[in-house]
Amino acid sequence: MNTNPINRYPFIAIALVALVSLASVDMAYGAETDDPLLTKVMIDEFENDLSSNSTTSWGAQAWIGYDLNKFWIKTEGEYSSGDVIDAEVQALYSRAIAPYWDLQMGLRRDLKPSPSRDWAVLGIQGLAPYFFEIDAALYVGKEGRTAVSFSSEYELLITQKLILTPEIEMNFYGQNDPDVGIGSGLSDFGAGLRLRYEIVREFAPYIGVNWSKKFGNTADYARDEGEEDSETQFVVGFRSWF
Amino acid sequence: MNKILKSSQLMAPGSLVKAPGTLSRRRFVMGAASAMMLASLPFTQSVLAASLRKGLTTLSGKVFDLSIDYQTVNFTGTDVRATVVNQSIPGPLLRWKEGESVTLRVKNNLDVSSSIHWHGIILPADMDGVPGISFEGIEPGETFEYNFTVGQSGTYWYHSHSGFQEQTGMYGAIVIDPKDADPVAYDREYVVMLSDWSDEEPESIYAKLKKQSDYYNFRERTLVDLFDDISANGLVNTWNARSMWNKGRMSDRDISDVTGYTYTYLMNGNTPEKGWQGLFRQGERVRLRFINSAAMTIFDVRIPGLKMTVVASDGQNIQPVSVDEFRIGVAETYDVIVEPEVDNAYCIFAQSIDRTGFTYGSLTSDQALTPLIPPMDPVAVLAHRDMGMNMEGMDHGSMDMAGNGDKAMNMNKAMEGMDHSAMQMDMAGNGDQTMDMNKAMEGMDHSAMQMDMAGNGDKTMNMNKAMEGMDHSAMQMDMNNTSATGLGLAGYGSNNEIKHVSSEFGPQVDMRAASPRSGLSDPGIGLRDHQSLYKRKVLTYADIKGLTPTRDKRQPSREIQLHLTGNMSRYMWSVNGIKFADAAPLELEFGERVRITLVNDTMMTHPMHLHGMWSELETGDPDFIPRKHTVIVQPGSSISYLVTADALGGWAYHCHLLFHMPGMFRKVQVNNA
Q1: Domains along chain B?
Q2: Most-buried pick from A16, A34, A85, B438 (CB within 10 A)?
Q3: Cβ pair B86, B31 in contact under 8 A
Q4: Cβ-based contacts of B581 with chain A (< 8 Å)
């Protein structure tokens, strides 16, 4: 039910204009510009559930911008037997606020499950001491909806190319939203372990295992739908960036 | 008109040896591409070896026509488009004469703006060849005429100062013959030009570094290293040793940004598959003019079996120093004299600082002989000193080493890389251990140190020996009762406090050296233990003294402290946390004598190049201050040099690592008073 197109397009336009205007354009000097406009697309996870071959999930990001200011898109979701079950997109302005941290703000839309939900986002992404990659955000939606997400990942190099990546992810919601199967409080927790081999820096196939569990009302809603409140998946997929 | 000389070598007056292989080379001089074609012809390696090895084409005279073109080259098995000067990589060797005026007509046949900068040459600001500072650059199809009088002699080089064209092949050597007799005696000379080649576009490398700064580093710590450390040092020690790095999100394996993963290292344009070859005759003293014209690669050079006598640094004569090995930063030059014996092939071995690759040449009396190529040395791991930190938890305010016996040795080890300011040492009765002590003291800063060596007997001599090349600035200060300004005396370096200015704080800077030490007598990361491990004497800046007396003996009137800063993971580089695009020019008053103190707040080794004026490195002897154009600033360390602002106009001042340069760059403006 996407009857309420929110005004994210003006926001994106403003963000892009801001980015371009922040660019340093003195190419005339005796050196290349230090801060060229770059883009990076990162498919962090694109994987198939080995136990139910029809389920594929993704997690990807892309940015365009400069050293300190970027327009950032994030998406994740899952489809099964050709139907998108779960899909979320974020469009963010990302600004470096510390050597290892970016402050991100913008909009998130949960396209699936229906009905869709829109959120304003304020997040932080970066590298914590001891090399933990962190992505955490606060979301505020309509009708008093609020949410918090947190994920963390660690890269353990077994060799230069064989890399084990444990990660955790959790979501909290401020209130029940039974239409989309979300309950208040800690809604779900996931832990994953992926072993990838970087054939080249930009491409790495992996195998992995995911465990996830729903809590509280979210678990109840799932059980009402006849779903399990926890599941373990063995996955095969690839990670890529360019 | 250009006079084309021998293609393979330079010959000193009096040398009658003709280069073997010259005839065939004349036909094959068109570059690596044709050489690669020939490699597939059915000749044996030994027959073709000499002709396949490329030498440098020499142009001499007063008027030079140079053209900048695209050319297809093949260093790796793949045809790639290069940007070249006069159809070769390196470009032609330009031979000038001190005191003469030269004219260089440079035609740009590229699709984009280009330029040539005469590196290390003292000349008028508008002849310096830096687009946006000296001139507007040379537009496609245009010819720019450089005219200037050559007022110096020695080994220099030239390169493009536009975009990243330097990496794609735009560099060549300059040798300037002195107008008077050369103080350096030699029978034969060769230019040894080191460089790095990548089939990747430099813009693409730069973009990759911005997206993933360790893209080219395949030496990161792994689980295997962790288990090795734990089994060697135990879990607790390993955790303690690692926590500093892990908390700081720093890699101790980050030696070079761009590595042998993409670079092929060249010597005079030859890949290590071929090697370069230089010939000599019995009894000859051979002068090797080393030039590091790489984009991003610092090299460590040695010739196993030969002592090298370093006679010039950055083109300027120095008091001869005998060494086994030296580090040459990007853009530095060193002239060395070697006296090889006949019937032997010596390997001129140049390994990259991060040991991901090397290039080599052979120095032989018989072109059929091939040298034994040594293995690369182990790669170094960065230490806390490279972050500009003292060893944690150790107080050296007062040290008593008397009677330590065997323990002294361990102590010595621990003392590497520490700051011994205000340290008192009592070495009485150390006996044999004193010698080890001496060793450990190399490369330290002994400001304000007091030494009591009573009772050391014979060992005192060793002690003294070890003290050579140290930074005794404060000791000198005491003796001289300080200069009126409160600055350190000329020749001894800075006495000033290291201060991190507010612009150094922000997302663009990931590290600030807490207690940087002097980099003067530091051989550098990866070379520090070569004396003890292999008995190789490694050149340090502390060894370098000018051959002729200091010209400007004034004290510095002020000191400018500049911090080399960056954020490795974002791949941003700056000075004082401010990148070039946002920085105001550094203003100097014409005629003033200033000290510049560079503080390296990163873990990278930065070769800093000041255009237009000499960087007079303060190596401890005010009467013989050596003049350099490019100065290595060791990781987490500081170094000072004096500058006489005797060149009006705008000048570039930057890190010569090509991908650091866009940000770690300042314009220096010398104004009339």
Answers
A1: 3-201+262-364 (2.60.40.420), 385-468 (no CATH), 502-671 (2.60.40.420)
A2: A34
A3: no
A4: 24, 26, 33-35
d(CA A127, CA A135): 9
Q: How far is CA B468 from CA A67, B402, B499, B521, B554, in A?
A: 45, 23, 29, 10, 25
Name the residue facing A31 among B506, B569, B665 (closest C-beta): B665
d(CA B616, CA B552): 10
For residues B376-400, one letter each, b for 16 or more C-beta atoms within 10 angstroms of the residue's C-beta and e for the rest, the string is: bbebbbbbbbbbbbbeeeeebeebe
**ipTM of the predicted structure?**
0.89
Q: Check if B266 contacts A (Cβ < 8 Å).
A: no
- Residue A22 CA: distances (Å) to CA of A67, B17, B273: 11, 61, 47
Contact A99 B580 (CB under 8 A): no
Tell me whether strands A55-65 and A38-49 are parallel, antiparallel or unpaired: antiparallel
For A78-107, give one letter per residue: b (16+ CB within 10 A) or e: bbeeeeeeebbebbbbbbbeebbbbbbbbb
Contact residues, chain B, for A96 at CB < 8 Å: 507-508, 570
Cα B106 from Cα B117, distance rounded (Å): 11
Residues counted in chain B: 673
Three-state SS annotation for B10-78: ECCCCCCCCCCCHHHHHHHCCCHHHHHHHHCCCCCHHHHHHHHCCCCCEEECCEEEEEEEEEEECCCCC
Look at the pTM and tell me if it is higher than 0.90.
no
Distance CA B179, CA B307 (A): 29
Q: What is the CATH number of the domain that holds A149?
A: 2.40.160.40
Q: Scanning every residue of chain A, which has its alpha carbon at the shortest distance from the alpha carbon of B245?
A: A130
A45 token code pair? 């996870």
> Tokens standing for B216?
């080219």
Q: Is residue A113 part of a domain?
A: yes
Do residue A32 and residue B215 have CB atoms under 8 angstroms apart?
no
Residue of B132, B207, B249 lying closest to A30 (CB–CB): B132
User: Which candidate in A32, A124, A132 is best for mutational testing of the B interface (most B CBs within 10 A)?
Assistant: A32
Pairwise CB contact (< 8 Å): A67 & B211? no
pLDDT digits (tens, 9 = 90+) for B591-645: 999 999 999 999 999 999 999 999 999 999 999 999 999 999 999 999 999 999 9
* Cis ω before A113 (30° cut-off from 0): yes
Question: CB-based contacts of B407: which residues, under 8 Å, 6+ apart?
Answer: none
Q: How many residues does chain A have?
A: 242
Residue B456 region, left (φ>0) first, then alpha (ψ -120 to 50), else beta?
Answer: alpha
pLDDT digits (tens, 9 = 90+) for B486-534: 688 999 999 899 999 999 999 999 999 989 999 999 999 999 999 999 9
The two three-digit tokens of residue B549, written as one number: 């007396």
Let me know if residue A29 belongs to a domain: no
